[in-house]
């Protein structure tokens, strides 16, 4: 029998190739417009199933196992893509991620049944299992909870020139969102900048690449404060600086604690 990852990786490779490189945009548009009447939907599903014959042959699967593999992937891919095509806003990022997660879960399920070395006990007792859980917790805390903490702190420093007082900070998750709106950007874009910044800082902190953290902060400062200087609003500049420093400090502390918990030596 196969090792779990030895079985899963070839299946994922075929999925990525068929879903992103062998599917023209015309097929995607046809599925969205004609749903189950689109012949492209059937072509795409069959392509996914037939392409899996290659890894099945490489992995040494029997005829019966190969037929089951092809049938399961073809049917599930058809159902998932049909459901996504029938949704009113099926092209949204959230639905795309959900669709891909469902496809991957099917492949994980298949790889699990193709292998014997993966059991619940083996997973729980794996030497890196709780390391993964601990790191995941660090990222979860660095995103939304950290935004709430930053917003709570910024409530104490209302924008004097905005005329909105504390309501400005209260209505946003962090200073990036506020500054984006104030300088003509979009609040959602600023919020995303904050999330990406903290993900990168946490990643580099755990990896011990502290110089990269300084580069990220410097690059962000150049773009952000350059825009704010044009507005000649000192209170906004200080507001964003406080939020940015809070973001860096909190995320660095989280990363340091995670590193210590993992037994990584702090340089």
TrEMBL record:
Would the keyword Transmembrane turn up in this protein's UniProt record? yes
Sorted UniProt keywords? Membrane, Transmembrane, Transmembrane helix
Q: Report TM segments.
A: 6-22, 93-112, 132-154, 199-219, 239-264
Does Ribonucleoprotein show up as a keyword for this record? no
Pfam families cross-referenced by the UniProt entry: DUF3307
Residues folding into a coiled coil are none
Record-given protein name: DUF3307 domain-containing protein
Query: Could you tell me which species this protein originates from?
Result: Parashewanella spongiae
């Amino acid at each position: 029998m196969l090792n779990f990852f030895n079985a899963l990786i070839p299946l994922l490779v075929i999925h990525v190739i068929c879903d992103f490189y062998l599917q023209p945009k015309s097929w995607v548009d046809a599925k969205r417009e004609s749903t189950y009447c689109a012949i492209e939907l059937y072509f795409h599903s069959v392509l996914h199933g037939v392409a899996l014959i290659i890894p099945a042959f490489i992995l040494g699967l029997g005829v019966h196992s190969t037929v089951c593999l092809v049938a399961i992937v073809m049917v599930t891919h058809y159902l998932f893509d049909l459901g996504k095509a029938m949704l009113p806003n099926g092209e949204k990022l959230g639905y795309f991620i959900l669709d891909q997660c469902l496809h991957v879960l099917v492949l994980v399920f298949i790889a699990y049944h193709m292998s014997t070395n993966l059991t619940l006990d083996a997973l729980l007792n794996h030497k890196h299992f709780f390391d993964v859980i601990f790191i995941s917790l660090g990222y979860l805390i660095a995103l939304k909870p950290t935004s709430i903490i930053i917003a709570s702190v910024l409530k104490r420093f209302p924008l004097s020139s905005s005329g909105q007082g504390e309501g400005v900070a209260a209505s946003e998750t962090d200073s990036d969102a506020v500054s984006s709106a104030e300088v003509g950007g979009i609040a959602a874009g600023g919020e995303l900048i904050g999330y990406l910044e903290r993900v990168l800082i946490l990643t580099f902190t755990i990896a011990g690449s502290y110089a990269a953290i300084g580069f990220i902060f410097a690059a962000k400062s150049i773009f952000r404060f350059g825009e704010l200087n044009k507005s000649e609003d000192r209170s906004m500049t200080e507001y964003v600086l406080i939020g940015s420093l809070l973001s860096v400090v909190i995320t660095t502390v989280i990363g340091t604690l995670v590193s210590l918990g993992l037994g990584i030596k702090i340089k």
